[in-house]
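Problem: given the chain below (668 residues), write out its structure.
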Amino acid sequence: MTLTVPSFAIERRPLAGAARPPGELPSVHGLLICADLPGLAVSAEHGQLTGQGLEGFYQSGRRLLSRCQLRVAGREPVSVQGRLLSAGRARFVSVVRTAADGGPDPEITVERLRHAEGTERITLSSSASRTLRLRVEIGLGTDLADLGAVAAGRSGPELPASVHASGMRWTAAGAQAVVTADPPPEDALASAGLLRWEIELLPGTSRTIELRIRTDRGVRPVTKAGSGLLSDATAEADDPRVRELLRTSLDDLRALLMRDSRRPTDVYLAAGVPWRCGLAPAEALWAARMTLPLGTRLAAATLRTVAHTQLRNPGPDQGRIPGPLRDAGPYLPPSCTGVEATLAFPVVLAEARRWGMAEQDLEELLPVAEGCLLWLRRAAGDDGCLRERGPAGHRRSETQAHAHRAALLGADLLAAYNRPGAEWWREWARALRRTFQENFWIDDRAGGRPATARSAVGRLVPHLGGGAAHLLDTGLLGAGRLAPGLLDKVQTEQVARLLGSPAMDSGWGLRSLGARESGHNPFGHRGGAVRVHETAVAVAGLAAAGYEKEATSLLRGVLDAAGAFGNRLPEMYAGEQRTAGSHPVPHPAACRPAAVAAAAGIHLLTALAGIRPDAPAGTVALSPVHCSPLGAVQFSGLRVAGEPFAVRISRLGLGMIEEAADKLQLGV
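Solution.
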């Protein structure tokens, strides 16, 4: 698993402090992480920033403040609660006892509201029956370290501070951080980074101190990407988890929106916080695809951003989108995420057209999609299969599914715009389907299984993994039709049975490698952990193919896991078998929030309605899950053909469109 951050690269030069072994990351799942990229605020539950670990305020990967310790009347407040209010805000409540308190009940309450954008409001409230005069002290400090250096344990000591206006300033190696206070402190001690106030609290009153943390004025900040890229969708359901998961997923997605400082019109979803706060093309495209029910503006912005990375120079890589290698589990060499992004590009564009993408966006991006298809045509082998680079030359089943889908949906795009090659790609997809069914299927007494991969010499890798879910992920064509998959009917039924078996369904979601396979590791990124995105693909594919029992089991498992994580799903968590009283365990290196996990929450829920739009043809149909696994569900504020769309699924599994654009012909 590659844990690099394009914009926040890990420092490799030695710094002071105890460095961690390569690849080892500090634990973050016990911390409260406020995200509103490019701003982050990482805190322990008690709310004091002590300078330990990852704690602090960050801006564009630089830690502007690592220590913010509050003392009232010479004492540290006693923490009673810390929790997230939203993706970008946290609230900490503590109390203070003074020497004058006459009983066990504290008379001073301290509330700290912390924002990822770089502000903190500290409010002291008195319940005393007398006037209180209190000294308030805030100790500040920072190392101005890069996030990667902090993660590697090489952050260095605190820097000396200087008094600046109504606060403190730190400078090092061209970087600068400034903290200002309102009201201004009555005393400032630079050598200790200390601000002091003498405040008077009348009975029943409160006083507020606001801190603002910012970088140097000489650098123009990156404008926050607008939240209008995603619709304000809501859900009401018999199962209250539906409403909360949709709300939190949407909140996390907005927190992860990033705008490129070099091209301010380019907007995308960062891969995840805190380790991958940059562009990961494959994951950004997957997230954009899964959020199409919230509108096509994010998909258009993401496609434009990724398009700028496409390789244009003549040669074998022309048309490919570059990307780093990613761990592929215990049995295969690392895979190239750039190949995955290249194959996803025409798929996202074609499906965004069905959901109602603006014509000008389609015309601008179509040549990039054609470039991706031309790369696929050159890269495919004589047998039509897409071969990985390297001496082993593996042909991964998952990659063949991506290529097949790209060919069919790419042909759909080419035909719509009278571009040449549509029929050639349809025939190529049919040939790949025949090849896959004959050469990638392993027969056995239990009904057979798809191979994970096929080597250059024809050896099949037999291990069953979550990547098989992509064999059921087809794609959206016109008139509400789904593209045919790689498998025939009998093979599809067998894969559905396998994905629903105890070996693959952990009770919390789909394992990335079956529990009965040798080398299974519950924490393995591709070796047994539950990857939320992969589970969402499986749920949607199983439901579309009519295997609702298996889809429902996986769906309920993820919903239960989401509740254990406060509805902020990590990108992956341990694939341990669920038992009575057990709880899902996050992967130590998992991002939370993560783009694909938050988008998967949207995909999981909207799969219940089975929305099949065809905006160019002016139609939209429903194919809901008939067993109604979560009871009655109503979605409002979705977008189809650029207009609000609302749908209700009854307890009997009947779908009804309640709001849609006037130009759309409705059907079920």
